Amino acid sequence: MEIQYFVFALAGLLTIACFMPSLASRLGLPHTVTLAILGGALGLIVQANGIHWPFIGDFLHALHGFSISSQTFLIVFLPILLFETSMAMNVRRIMVDISPY
After folding, report:
1. Dist. CA 47–CA 64, nearest whole Å
2. How confident is the model at residue 26 (pLDDT cuts 50, 70, 90)?
3. The pLDDT of residue 52
4. SS (H, E, C) the chain
5. What local confidence, expressed as pLDDT, does residue 50 receive?
6. Which terminal residue of the chain has fewer beta carbons within 10 Å of its beta carbon, N or C?
7. How buried is 49 (Cβ within 10 angstroms: 0-12 exposed, 13-18 middle, 19+ buried)?
8. Average pLDDT rounded to a whole number, residues 19-27
9. 59 touches 8 (CB < 8 A)
10. Max CA separation in the chain (angstroms)
């Protein structure tokens, strides 16, 4: 994969991810759910390869060659996701759920 396609795909994915929290709050869903739904939809669209609009077609073409190994995901993205989840966690609620009384 050429570097310009990699940078374009990564920038596009990060841009989409930046808009997901506001969309999730409007829909009343957790932002992780909206990210999963959008990721699945993008995967289906990329595999179908049916959109030939100028900008979106280039983005989908860049996504088609974009791949992240499982080791990269575990080392780079998983700690960030776990940290964000731990910061958003309501500890008092967990303590109420854990306590037997």
Report:
1. 8
2. very high
3. 66
4. CCHHHHHHHHHHHHHHHHHHHHHHHHHCCCHHHHHHHHHHHHHHHHHHCCCCCHHHHHHHHHHHCCCCCHHHHHHHHHHHHHHHHHHHCCHHHHHHHHCCC
5. 61
6. C
7. exposed
8. 89
9. yes
10. 61
